[in-house]
Amino acid sequence: MGIYKNDDFDVEKQSWYHGFRPRRDVEPLLPEPGDFLVRATDARTNNVELVLSVKSNDKGIINLTIVFSDGKWHLGILKKAKIVRFDTIPQLIEYYRGHRISSHLILKRPVARPDWLIKHEKVTYNPEKDKLGTGNFCDVYKGTYARDHNESITVAVKICHQGQAGKVAGGATRSS
After folding, report:
1. Phi-psi region of 100 (alpha: psi -120 to 50; beta: other; left: phi over 0)
2. Torsions phi, psi of 6, nearest 5?
3. 59 closest CA partner among 122, 6, 105, 123
4. Where are the domains of the chain?
5. How many alpha carbons fall within 13 Å on the CB side of residue 10?
6. What region holds the SH2 domain (predicted)?
């Protein structure tokens, strides 16, 4: 298994983890067979799911749910006989970079999260004090984006009403 730093086990610290991104946004990012990334989604259920999106040799983009059960992570679609379980998602990804998922699917090239894709935990707002306005689908708040190196920027934070079209993936951290 090798020697790991603490960050090696944190999925959000991995370059191939994109956070909340819809399927339609990642398809153009995976042009070659074996290109992959991991993303979060709540499109199928009201719960957050992690999805491994990978370009196959012959079937386009394949989206595989990453499941946590019995204290371990595994790919959700594999037959019970083929399920391999891991303590962390980075271990799962590393394993499948060297082992085929199926005859037409192997992880070759991780696609890094772009710099402009802001991590949700870096944005804070106060829903009681910072509301700027409201519309039919969303509320807008004044927030703060904590950039690297102790720099912060004032930003607008759009939070969609529960159950509205587009379901903007949950986002910023509320501050008290």
Report:
1. beta
2. -55, -40
3. 105
4. 6-110, 120-174
5. 5
6. 16-111
